[in-house]
Amino acid sequence: MQWDATVHGGFTSGTPWMRVNDDYETSNVDVQSTNENSVLNFWKKALKVRKDHEVLIYGNFVDLDPEHEQVLVYTRTLGEVTALVVLNFKETEITYSLGSHGARTWKEDAKYVIGNYPPGPPGAGDVALNGDVIVLRGFEGRLYI
Question: What is the DSSP string of 9-59?
Fold first, then answer.
């Protein structure tokens, strides 16, 4: 990613050895650092969440549905703490049943921690776990602990 909107994306005042992306004026650290919902700030938040929850670093990994072609759903468990990660790898929305793949073995009072979409009202990106069904938007990922 480019640093800023200056010539050569802020990498050099000389002649760069390779060209910068054409979008350097709008997609750069300067622009993204001021946008709370930018990719840069999402990853800053995600890395902080990982650092704050040892279960995400040291927890035992269990893939709950290894044959599914669209959704990756797994848990990580460390002691009494279990994290549930649900990722939709396609651009289409999917309604996924967590219960049919053993995901109900983790705590039902798990809280939504982070996702790559802002939480929305029920039916439009609702992040609450109501029963064992979860609706994921295209390329959506969520973490519950």
Answer: GGS-SS--SSPPPTTTTTSBHHHHHT-TTSHHHHHHHHHHHHHH-THHHHS
* DSSP element (H, E) containing 43: helix 39-52
Pair of tokens at residue 96: 């996924």
Residue 106 has φ and ψ, to the nearest 5°, of: -90, 170
- Backbone phi, then psi, for 55, in 5-degree steps? -60, -30
pLDDT band of residue 98 (cuts 50, 70, 90) is confident
pLDDT 10s digits, 42-68: 999 999 999 999 999 999 999 999 999
Distance from C-alpha of 36 to C-alpha of 49, rounded to nearest angstrom: 16
- CA of residue 132 relative to chain centroid, distance: 20
What Å distances lie between residue 2 and 37, 44, 78, CA to CA?
A: 18, 17, 38
Diameter of the chain measured on Cα atoms: 59
pTM for the full model? 0.80
Nearest to 42 by CA among 111, 144, 140, 145: 140
